[in-house]
Give the backbone structure.
Amino acid sequence: GIQVEQSPPDLILQEGANSTLRCNFSDSVNNLQWFHQNPWGQLINLFYIPSGTKQNGRLSATTVATERYSLLYISSSQTTDSGVYFCAVERTGANSKLTFGKGITLSVRP
Amino acid sequence: SAVISQKPSRDICQRGTSLTIQCQVDSQVTMMFWYRQQPGQSLTLIATANQGSEATYESGFVIDKFPISRPNLTFSTLTVSNMSPEDSSIYLCSVRQVGDEQFFGPGTRLTVL
């Protein structure tokens, strides 16, 4: 199956700092999503981004499908950004099955 | 986006018993899935719930342990059978339309003693 690697595994930031989270995948994809899992376990959709660049407030994401990676940028981080960030991909021809990376645990300190 | 609810939100169960988790969506969806998230781990797909037919299970998951029903396009259940402490996890229902974004329910946090 497709491999999804996220880096770094853990990240500690001071409030106000910027960060870049990376997702590498091993095969061609026709779906890529970024999620934020909050401390209560809820998975929140951040971006649906199989290719290109999108922005939503302080967050933006870029996927370069030909080079098999995606980046999530967080600017001016806040304590509420803390949690686990997951990248999930659907390999082309995989019948809509999402495969998740192991996640990046982000802690933003006041 | 679809609004997904799950019941129960959490439960504590005894070893050897079974628990049925319900997933309700506020609109008809093409595809419904069940995922498991073990403590400190990522999400793993258990099965795709097929309307009116048997679910399609991923490697390592079997129907006897995780029977699934999907009677219509807005509802599905997952049963965790003959539970052991290793089944303690968050179980999440997920939905999407073909070729579209996927959404997750709030999850059911299960503890097995």
User: Anything to note?
Assistant: The radius of gyration of chain B is 13 Å. Residues 3 and 9 of chain B are 15 Å apart (CA to CA). The interface with chain A takes residues 1, 31, 33, 37, 41-45, 48, 90, 92, 94, 96, 98-104, 106-107, 109 of chain B (CB under 8 Å). The longest strand of chain B covers residues 89-96.
